[in-house]
Each structure stands twice: as structure tokens, then as C-alpha cells.
Amino acid sequence: MKKQFEKFKNIISESFEINEFLKITLSKRKNSLDDLKNVYIREIIIRKQRMLSFTFRYERRDEVKNFFLQEAWVQIENLLGNQFENADAFTSQNHYLYASSNDSLKISEINEKSDVSISKSHDKEKVRLINPVNNKYLNGLGISSLTGEIIKDKNAKWKQINRYIEIFAHLIKPLSLPSSLKISDMGCGKGYLTFALFDYLKQSGFAPSMTGVESRQDLIDFCNQLSDNSGMDGLQFVKSTIMDYDCKNLDILIALHACDTATDDAIFKGIFADAKVIITAPCCHKQVRKNMQNPDKLLPILKHGILKERMAETLTDTLRSLVLEGFGYEANVIEFISPEHTGKNLMITAIKQRETQWEKYLGKIDALMLEFGIMNFYLLDLVKKRFSSKETS
Question: Exposed, middle or buried, 376 (CB in 10 Å: 0-12/13-18/19+)?
């Protein structure tokens, strides 16, 4: 064991025990094998138990894991040994810089004017990107009172809203997008997430033109009235199906929990509207499930209905990602909502990064479909029909 690391570990552990610990940041990557940029560690209190919360900061997402003190040091030692050079630790008294490359430890006093304090609470004091105080649309949607108190049975929806905004903010941060963003939110329903995103973009300095698309007239009327009452110029709602809606020159297309092939309709519309960003949260993967055959080598697994259903969901979203990649998008599948709220908890994010390489990816799509005996894939059929109509026009 490295001598200075042991000293560093003992000092910081003692500061934790006497409530002087503030935070640790692991930085200076040793290699670029993955996109993990740094790790931020702070104390939190969960159910009256003190823990260390690790925020793993990747290029396009954050992951949070919580550990008790002894478990945390196992993680820190492993990360310093394999991925990072430096550990910056702050207590209320001192700043400690440990360098794993030469097992050195530097100690300096904290300037009295420095502000390195940090909250230890977990959920209740979490900084939110959406302010619920005097928020007319959250009040109109029944999420909060005008004083900012979240309605008790709407806590899950409130967490979903904030998780969505966090993902979106992280996704677009590195992108060069125009201030006058043009956005379509397909199958927006009652508009919980639509209103929140419009609010966030306005607060972030954008001047978005945003349209919520929904097929139910009563929801369209409700949302347009709430938008007017909330002073949200630039946000409108229109009655249409996804496929019938005419969207051109979009910057961002969104479709959250559009049922079954409606997600494919949205992806198709986003691709051919040349959207820079496409965000979908798929739901009800029925089409592939009905057409999928069990490969002999997977029969022991897929003979179970629940496992076959999950495999169909995985296949569907993999095929969707491949289609997006074929059209020059960088596609990622991430967790959107905690599985404790719904099993339909995945999100596909896609950012236009390169020219179309359709033929290259078509081979991958065909091979995967052949493996599972899938004769038709709805999104692929839409794309082929589009190409066919272009050739004959």
C-alpha cells in the first residue's frame, strides 16, 4: 500500500467522523478508454445514515452511486489505481491534493474567504432546474401549490420532470444550437414535460418555438389555455397524429411514451425533418414481439413469456438505434425513469453527428432481424417506403 495514500485516507476518514469533511474530486484521467471525465464525491444523509455519494460524470450523462465509508474507500482506491491521477479533498480546515502517479500528498489551509461548503441532504434540498415557487403551469397541472409545495401524490411526476430536464440539459450542453430553437413534442399528452422543457429553455436564454402534438382535442384545449395563462409565448399545442403532422427543419424532436409503433413514426419524422436531436422514451413494444421467432440457441431463455417480452423490447430499441445510426446519429439508450415507477423506463437519445451511412447499417439491421426471424420491422418499412417513393418520383 502506498504510504501517502494511507495517510490521505486516514486524514479524510477522520474528517468524516468528526463532521469536517466537505468533498473529494477525482480528476486527471490516465487514459481515454471511456468517456468518464471525473468523479465528484460528497457526503449525504439517507434515512438518517451518513454515506458518500459518488457522481460519475461522463461526456453525456451523470451516474450517481452511494456507499458507506469503507465501501467508498475501496471505490476511491480502485479509481485512483486505474482511471485517475489526482484526488482533491476538502475539509472545513484544509485542502488535500493526492497524486497517485508519485504517491505524493500536498496540504494547504483553506482561505477564510473560500466558499467550499456543501449541503449534506439527499432529496429535499436538491438543486432543481425547474423552480416550483409561483409556477403557474405546475400549479395548473396539479403538481405544486403557488408557494412551491409539491402535492403529495405528485412526487413521482415531479421527480420525472426534473430527471427529464437534467437529461436534456446534459445532452444539449456541448451542442451548438440556435437560440431560436424549433421543437416538436410528439404525443405530448397533458404536457407535463412539454411545459417544463419550454420553461427551462426560456430560463436558459433560448427563444424556443415549441409545438406539442396530441390527438385528443380536450388535452389540446387544456394545454393551450394553460400556456396562455402562464404567459408562455412561443409554446402552442395542435391536434394531429404523429404521422399526419407536418414538421420541417426541426432542431429537436421529442416523443415520450408514444405507444408501440408511434415511437417509430416519431423517429421517422425526426430523421426526415433533419432534426439535430431526437429524444424518445419507447413504450409498448408489440410489433417485434408478435413477429419474433425463438433462435434455437436461445430457446431455454425465450420459452419464458416475460423474458421473451423483455428480449423483444431490447431488440426493438436496438433496431431503432441502428436505424438512427444509419442516418448519421449518435444513438444512446439510457435509463429515464426509475424502474420502481414503471418498467418502461428507457430513453433513446440521438444526436446528428455525421453523414448518412445507410447501406452499412442496413446490413447490420438485416442480420439481426434474420437471427430472430423478424420478417418486418415497422420503422425499417417506413424508411424503405420513403426511399422507394423518392426513386419513383
Answer: exposed
Closest by alpha carbon to 128, among 164, 94, 86?
Answer: 164
User: Can you tell me which residue has the cell 418502461?
Assistant: 344
CB 187 within 8 A of CB 258: yes
Type of residue numbered 298 = L
Half-sphere exposure of 353 (CA within 13 A, CB side): 12
- Domain ranges in the chain are 3-109, 136-392
Let me know the angle formed at the C-alpha of 181 by 281 and 162, rounded to the nearest 5 degrees: 45
Beta strands 36-46 and 21-29 are antiparallel
State the DSSP H helix or E strand holding residue 323, giving kind and residue range, or none if neither. Answer: helix 305-326
pLDDT above 60 for 393: no
Q: Give pLDDT tens digits for 317-355.
A: 999 999 999 999 999 998 886 544 444 578 999 999 989
CA–CA separation, 241 and 190 (whole Å): 15
Q: Which amino acid is at 250?
A: L
Tell me, what amino acid is at 334? Answer: I
Query: Region 85-111: what's the mean pLDDT?
Result: 88
Q: What are phi and psi of 238, to 5 degrees?
A: -130, 150
| Domain at 136-392: CATH code | 3.40.50.150
Amino acid at 313: E
DSSP class of residue 274? Answer: T
pLDDT of residue 113: 42
Element (H, E) at 66: strand 62-67
Question: Cα 207–234–229 angle (5° rounding)?
Answer: 125
Q: How far apart are CA 268 and CA 358, in angstroms?
A: 14
What 3-state class would DSSP assign to 13?
helix
